[in-house]
Amino acid sequence: MKQFFYPESIAVIGASEGTEKIGGKTLDAIISHGYEGRIYPIHPRHTHIGGLKAYPDVVSIEDKIDLAIIAIPAQLVCEAVRQCGQKAIPYVLVVSSGFNEAGAEGQALQAELLRVSKEVGVRVSGPNSEGLFTTRTKLAATFSPAINIEIGDLAAKRQIGIVSQSGGLGFGFYNRGRRDNLNFNHIVSVGNQVDLELSDYADYIIEQPETAVVMMYVESFANAKRFVELARRAAVLRKPIVIVKVGRSVAGGKAAASHTGALASPAKVVDAVLDACGVLRADDQGELLDIAAGLTNYALPKDDRVAVVSPSGGTAVWLTDALQAQGFELPTLDENSQSVLQTFIPSFGSTANPVDITAQTTVHGYSETLEVLAKADNIDAIILAASFAHEKRLISEGQRIAELSRSIGKPVLLYSYTLISEGSRARLRDLGLHCFTTIRGCVLALAAMRDYRNFLDKEKQPERVDWLPGPVQTKVKAVLKSYPGKVIAEFQAKQLMELYGIPIAQEAIATDPEHARQIAARIGYPVALKVHSADITHKTEAQVVQLGLPDDRSIEPAFRQILSRAKPYAPDAVIDGVLVQAMAKPGVEMMAGIVMDKQFGPMIMIGSGGIFAEVLEDTALAPAPLSLSESHSLIRRLKGNKLLDGVRGQPAADRNSLAQFLVRLSIMAVNLQNDLVEFDVNPVFVHPDGQGITIVDALGIRSTDEG
After folding, report:
1. Is the fold of 1-130 the same as that of 299-459?
2. Which of 199, 256, 575, 625 fits a disulfide with 666 by CB distance 3.0 to 4.6 angstroms?
3. pLDDT tens digits along 291-347
4. Coil, strand, or helix at residue 461?
5. CA distance 423 to 446
6. 644 touches 691 (CB < 8 A)
7. How many other C-beta atoms can be found within 10 angstroms of the C-beta atom of residue 671?
8. Strands of 252-364, DSSP E
């Protein structure tokens, strides 16, 4: 996409004199920001616009054109694109609105735009885009007023790219970031993504040598799997993506047939995929920019141990609380470090950690403290809190702080608890220092740096996932073919799981009480009886389950009672019989399942059992397949994770068997992603360590897609 981001020649279709119209504003921005390429205004009547020769159409231009910007009424756009194809222009940027966002007529226009672009071989950015800004060439192909700010250091080695579905917000990020002296290379408003989509732009930006971070504002993923590929490529390059994903509050809408489907909301699926890909998230503009600032300006911390340096005791306490809430440690400094600090910190200060240098510290108090902390083996990152309401401190030791920050091999984050004066802001810029202005922003930036380091560490040690041999896959297909209904009832669902190496307790379907007695005698008492029918999926609600049956005499009345309750509950249900199974031994109750997300593919869910999953929403999701370590990590994300450690005298549960089960379930999810929509395993009892798990119930929902 070099010709899109770095065009040597541009045609502006819809250019006009003045800045009253979008075409005029865009042309004015291109000229006024100093773009040095060749510019060709297009207007059917004018011969000159903005001091430049104008042309009636792009075909009339003798020069080769790399990019055409289209700012004309929506009804005329398709013909303009057709002419661009005739002229062999590779890219068009459509800022015109009136397409998908404008009802049925606009949707028809957008469909026609896509058809025409493919027909003539022109790639389309937009429509309904706010444009493009490439800072290195000063290409301001936008009508946004937010670019009216000093452009920054074009030679900066670590810059930020912005790809946004909201033009206003994307250019707003740039405007806000520049005020904090962040440097940017590309800002792109993607518009309606009729052709080029988010990942196309980000893929190009992330490959640029000066790009350190890509910021994204996303409402929806036009191509979710392509985005996952992009995120993985970014991880290889060690270039983090920081994303704001909105639309999280939209209700799922469908009535899911399984517990797993109901609990795996689209927002949770997106979160799980982003976590797995190492994509960092932000919840507002400030957080987005703070995280990007941290990743751009500092080395990643090697571990979670932080030192806080502050002249204000209250600030130190507040920072400590915020850091600990994010899982950081503040270890006490060793005796040698403290003894050195005591030589210049007043006796009423503190040398432990946080280090309270007090307001009466020496003129070199910060830099002297930094020199000590640089040598402390139990410190991985440092936060210097100060007041930069005046530049006095930066005058006295700013240069030394900057030198140490770049040389000690640990991130040194500056935070000002007062507004930063213009004089201080200028000195910080000259020194190449970034300064955070909120405790939350500073700590969240450090947490994002830590999280990204953890992700990269994990990526260094990929684990092999064992797939099924061919003959077993053939058996799986045979089981599915033998039971062609939409719902896969419990017995067949467990047959599938057993083929994937998941242990299943003894059980069988009985067609009459005597048959049930024979099965129970073979399995061994006590046993459980349940109706078996693909048409009765909520067995407890239907009261068609009998537990803890102790002997032969208890079987017949339980069998008949189950059938007598099943018929009025679901008069049209096809009943296969009654399932007889061994009673599960006591254990920690969990649930698990598979969801086939339409955008991101197979997902694995684990949840605490009983009311915890549904009422307390104690669930965790991850994309399949899972390695063993990923399965353990997924389990640890649950609030009920501690129940597996044993509480109130209970033994620790068999975590490893639970994790192995999730690995196998994830392989099943990948293998059957075209056959299943959902798969519910609920409950799962996790027995004491070394005693395995018991799958008590299971249910599958088949895909109805043809082919």
Report:
1. yes
2. 625
3. 999 999 999 999 999 999 999 999 999 999 999 999 999 999 999 999 999 999 998
4. coil
5. 26
6. no
7. 22
8. 280-281, 306-310, 355-356
Q: How far is CA 345 from CA 73, 333, 341, 355, 365, in A?
A: 69, 14, 6, 9, 8
Q: Which superfamily, per CATH, for 1-130?
A: NAD(P)-binding Rossmann-like Domain (3.40.50.720)
Partnered with residue 577 across adjacent β-strands are 532
CA-to-CA separations, 252 to 247, 310, 624, 677, in angstroms, rounded: 11, 47, 21, 15
Could you tell me where the beta strands, DSSP code E, fall in 447-495?
Answer: 487-488
What are the φ and ψ backbone dihedral angles of 706, each rounded to 5 degrees?
Answer: -75, 140
Side chain identity at 590, as an amino acid letter? Answer: M
The yes or no reply on domain 299-459 and CATH 3.40.980.10 is no
Distance of CA 184 to the CA centre of its chain: 22
Local structure of 404: helix, strand or coil: helix
pLDDT grade, residue 169 (50/70/90)?
A: very high
Task: Tell me the domain boundaries of the chain.
Answer: 1-130, 299-459, 506-582, 588-702
| Record: fold of 588-702 | D-amino Acid Aminotransferase; Chain A, domain 1 (3.30.470)
Note the Cα 157 to chain centre separation in Å: 26
Token pair in block for residue 703: 């895909």
Q: Which of 44, 93, 24 is nearest to 65 (CA)?
A: 93
CA-to-CA distance for 548 and 25, rounded, in angstroms?
78
What is the Cα–Cα distance from 150 to 172, expressed in whole angstroms? Answer: 14
Nearest-angstrom CA–CA distance, 37 and 63: 12
Between the alpha carbon of residue 652 and those of residues 228, 277, 644, 645, 695, the distances in Å are 37, 32, 6, 4, 19
**pLDDT for 455-480, tens place per residue?**
998 866 555 556 666 777 788 888 88
DSSP-assigned states of every residue in 690-704: TS-EEE--EEEEE--
Residue type, 626: L
List pLDDT tens digits, range 402-423.
999 999 999 999 999 999 999 9
pTM of the model: 0.89
- 339 with 321: CB under 8 angstroms? no
CA distances from 253 to 17, 266, 567, 703 (A): 49, 10, 30, 18
> What is the homologous superfamily of the domain 506-582 according to CATH?
ATP-grasp fold, A domain (3.30.1490.20)
Give every CB contact of residue 503 below 8 A, 6+ residues apart in sequence: 692, 693, 695
Contacts of residue 232, defined as CB under 8 A and 6 or more positions apart, other chains included, come to 277
Assign 3-class secondary structure to 544-580: CEEEEECCHHHHHHHHHHHHHHHHHHCCCCCCCEEEE
Tracing tokens 């059980």 back to the chain, one arrives at 507
* Residue given tokens 């069988």 in the structure block: 508
Do the beta carbons of residue 110 and residue 99 sit within 8 Å?
Answer: yes
> Hey, what amino acid is at 307?
A
Half-sphere exposure of 523 (CA within 13 A, CB side): 28
DSSP states along 234-283: HHHTT--EEEEE--TTS---S--SSHHHHH--HHHHHHHHHHHHT-EE-S
Take residue 534 and report the two structure tokens written for it.
Answer: 């693909």
Cα–Cα dist 71/85, whole Å: 17
